[in-house]
Amino acid sequence: MSFTDEEGNESLKKSKKKLKGESAWRPEGPRDPFALLDSLPEKKQQEIQRALHLFSLGRSLPKTLQEAKKHTYRFWGTQPVPKLGEKNVTVLSHGPIEGIEASVRDEPYTLPQGFSWDTLDLSNPFVVRYFLETPHISSNYPGKKKHLKVCENVFLYHCTPCQSQWHCGVRVQANKKLVGFIAAVPADVQNVSDREKQTVHVKLLCVHKKLRQKRMAPVLVRELTRRVNLQGLYQAVYTADIVLPTPLSSSRLWHRPLNPRKLMEVNYPRLRQNMNLQRALKFNRLPETTKTNGLRPMTKKDAPEILSLLQDHLCKFKLSSILSLQQVEHWLLPRQNVIDTYVVEGDDGSLTDVVSFYSVTSRVLNHPVHTALKAAHLLCMASTGSELTDLMGDALILAKSNGFDIFTAFDVMDNAIFLEKLKFTVSDKSLHYYLYNWMCPWMNTGFLLAVK
């Protein structure tokens, strides 16, 4: 080795020592980022993937009307919905925005090369299982394999009954992977003019995270619209927590802790921040037993009386569901870990009250003890023999005894009567209600029934 080489090596050693902790060592060539990611622990990989997903979302969709007015809606601007900024509060009549087309396209809309349409048969348990094990679906319907049966029941409850062609999916042709899905269920409604309208309720729009900025969601909506139009239906009801053109009404979510200790242990964000554990337990304490006489779980034979009770109750709202006996049995008949319904039977054997709530389970991440949070969400209630506050108070007791950690409800219909009295707290989450191809006046939440 020459003197020059030794001097060069000595100089290199000094420079590495000086730059230690900064950039003293660099690999000769670029390392494979995927190999580097695979070499990390699984927990660290998941954290990186979540962070990358957040950064890849780009500009978020508007959550308020002020943000929405500055947003450009490339898809919704072409659809038969009220445009943002229109004075729809002055509209006094109900009616379609676009007339019925003479003919509806028979062929599905064209997809990019490599993708194909699919109609999912949800009566096939293997199809349902595959659907729920698809990653971008499991993020919406949480549950490990040991809880998979519960997830199947919840999923089938929300997406049936409906025609199979309304279960619209997109697959990758090469490997048949499901990367998009949208569904609709029948939801006939009645407005303030006693005008009945056949509509559908759009449910569960899911798109693979890599395709969410590739305009797949509008393609799914257009294809579902085409399939619904083929059945002679041209209106739809849907909800979203973002502002689209243009909300029919908006409501706020309220929550009532049932298990404050667990909620504090998992750092649930909607608890009162000024309470310690002992104060929270005392403040949210509930009686051990219900006080309404004749309160019992619903049975199938109760369905006709419940239908009559709900019809009399819903007719006072400006927009309400028109239910059939089959729908009452599907939406309200109790199913374990899916839906709970209770009725009040009078002394003469007739039903005077009904209250129903369904289960929403969320995953708890990175906690040594708790893996899930179980919430009860109010579906409907009607009362002719009890005070609403008393009936709802008993519902809280029953939900707690059934293992629910929190009870949630929107401030629609008559719910404002009991929310503050029963120590519900309003959250920052809003839900907006929309009608597709139908113009009508703005509705206060007190006159609106959220279609299930």
Automatic annotation (TrEMBL):
Its main location: cytoplasm. The gene is LOC101164598. Residues 20-31 have a biased composition (Basic and acidic residues). It is a peripheral membrane protein. One of its GO terms (molecular function) is glycylpeptide N-tetradecanoyltransferase activity. Residues 265-445 form the Glycylpeptide N-tetradecanoyltransferase C-terminal domain. It is found in: Cytoplasm, Cytosol; Membrane. Belongs to the NMT family. Adds a myristoyl group to the N-terminal glycine residue of certain cellular proteins. Keywords: Acyltransferase, Cytoplasm, Membrane, Phosphoprotein, Transferase. Residues 102-250 form the Glycylpeptide N-tetradecanoyltransferase N-terminal domain. Residues 1-36 are annotated as: Disordered. It comes from the Eukaryota. Pfam families: NMT (PF01233), NMT_C (PF02799). PANTHER family: GLYCYLPEPTIDE N-TETRADECANOYLTRANSFERASE 1, N-MYRISTOYL TRANSFERASE. This is Glycylpeptide N-tetradecanoyltransferase. GO terms for cellular component: cytosol; membrane.
